[in-house]
Amino acid sequence: MAQTRPAEHRPTPALDSSAAAGAALRTFFNIARAWGLSSAEEQRLLGVKRSTLYAWRSGDLPARLDENTLERLSYVFGIYSALQVLLPVAERADAWIRKANTAPMFGGDSALSRMLGGRVADLFEVRHYLDAMRGGVS
């Protein structure tokens, strides 16, 4: 009987490492590109100064991300993931955040308008809404 070799195991970087910060920020910038975000919108979603955003984008990564940034990234990743499940056509999923929405929490504005409110709670609310639409819990 043929023996199978175990899959190569790569250790997951600690969340407070520069490797994790780099991976998280690369993921964020990929999502931002898919959503067509401007630099100002990226800055607002991350809750950082303009100079910080440009430093990160140019590859000058922090040794670790602070808790506020990690929380914001977590919500953005969850929103992106939920949209991929709800709207399996990538273009529709990516466009959804800019479309006017009649759900009471959006008041006719887009989800992105709500997300750009500046508070972490705005990101949480959009994430929670999408999780409820999927039939799950956040």
Notes on the protein architecture:
The protein has 138 residues and is mainly alpha-helical. It has one domain (18-134). It has seven helices and no strands. The radius of gyration is 17 Å and the shape is globular.
Descriptive tags:
single chain; 138 residues; mainly alpha; 7 helices
Summarize the structure.
With 138 residues, this protein is mainly α. Helices cover 59% and strands 0% of the residues.
What's the story with the biggest beta sheet? none
What is the average of the pLDDT values?
89
**Helix- and strand-based class?**
mainly alpha
Estimate the global geometry from the Cα principal axes: globular
Please give the count of helices: 7
Number of strands: 0
Content of β-strand: under 5%
What sequence of helices (H) and strands (E) makes up the elements? HHHHHHH
Question: Secondary-structure blueprint of this entry?
Answer:
Layout: H1 18-35, H2 39-46, H3 50-57, H4 67-86, H5 90-96, H6 111-115, H7 120-134
